[in-house]
What does this fold into?
Amino acid sequence: MLHPMAADCDGLVVYNHEQGGKKVNVRPARKAVDLAREIKELHEIDYPAEEKVVLVWDNLNTHVHASLYKAIEPK
It folds into this structure.
């Protein structure tokens, strides 16, 4: 049985195909800014030395380039 609050959270899985590693973060909501914060964390904390990170995502309504500008300042 699922916890009653389970429907009110979002799990985001990040998988590193080259190194075989993965991580899962659970956030309280599934909003565009949550996705942007996750990608910012991926770049700044998980892979700070990488010049380029390739993202593969589905067509969920928050998975659009505009979502990134909600948490990441464009250069």
